[in-house]
């Protein structure tokens, strides 16, 4: 890996200061834990003249209860910090389970929630050293004009591989975004696009400042949620595929269900059509119906070492087994 090139390190103390620095340095990149960004800088994938470190902004480092019993988690809260938070373990198990599966313990000490949700997409032909990519003629995500995964097309299929996004999505989480024209709060899914070269709908001068998790219904006792992930190296690895499920049952009857996936597309996706299963009696047939919903909504490509067909099977099995785990006590 190459040496870290020179850049200016800017350290705002407030969100307003960070926004002003963003305005003054349009080519600067936001830095949180740096576990993704610094690797990409060293690989020459990004070459910022300035980096804005947002981890000194107190408002982004807090976990606070909101009116009505929800939770606001600042974007710069580290995964280790929020794994220690009791409220997360009790009320939002899917998010806790997903956070515990990110990278390794040392990464989680600095890796943040915001950085995880804004993670760049990944591809076998992109997350490589400069000499590797230049020898390969680069690719259209950065500096090149051909996609090595789908050479006849003009679309990038690099995969989104963050573990936390599907968990936040099934829990009904929204994200708070600060920008020069003020703030907005939107469902997490709205900040993504299924395009590997431009998967984030955040403007260059916007900052994701927090995630809001609603108190109910997902924190109610009859709601259950969880996360399951498949990866090549069990100790530390990005997901080949990851699935989060939140569901609500009355006895054996399914009252509500949400499923979201990561690793299969260029953005995390909330599976459409699960409402058709509401009212069904839970059983093996329900698990099969869920698995049958996936093929048309996912698009794994040859962007990882493992073939797309394998990832299709893996994600269906993750969904089946997670659904069984969450419903076996009903
Ligand atoms: C060996 C290794 C293994 C890994 N394994 C996993 C894994 O299993 N699962 C997984 O999900 N990730 C994994 N990662 C990626 C990364 O460690 C995590 O996703 C981490 O949570 C990223 O957070 P960060 O704070 O370090 O992000 P940073 O590297 O600081 O930032 C990531 C990106 O988000 C942008 N950004 C950061 N904060 C904000 C914000 N508040 N608003 C807008 N943009 C922002 C940055 O500009 C940058 O583009 C791995 C990384 C490595 C090196
Ligand atoms: S999918 Fe194609 S364009 Fe995108 S990073 Fe991979 S090789 Fe490059």
Question: What features would you describe in this structure?
Answer:
There is one protein chain. The protein is α+β, with helices and mostly antiparallel strands. Among the domains are: 1-54, Uridine Diphospho-n-acetylenolpyruvylglucosamine Reductase, domain 2 (2-Layer Sandwich), CATH 3.30.43; 223-327, CO dehydrogenase flavoprotein, C-terminal domain (Enolase-like, domain 1), CATH 3.30.390.50. Helix content is 26%, strand content 20%. It has 11 helices and 12 strands. The chain has helices at residues 15-24, 37-42, 79-83, 86-91, 93-100, 105-108, 113-117, 130-135, 164-170, 284-293, 308-327; strands spanning 8-10, 29-31, 50-53, 63-65, 71-74, 174-179, 182-187, 207-213, 223-230, 241-250, 253-262, 269-270. Helix 5 runs antiparallel to helix 9 (164-170) and helix 10 (284-293) runs antiparallel to helix 11. The radius of gyration is 20 Å and the shape is globular. The protein starts with 7 loop residues before the first strand and ends with a helix. 42% of the residues are buried. The mean pLDDT is 94. The site of flavin-adenine dinucleotide (FAD) has 31 residues, from strand 2, helix 2, helix 7 and strand 8.
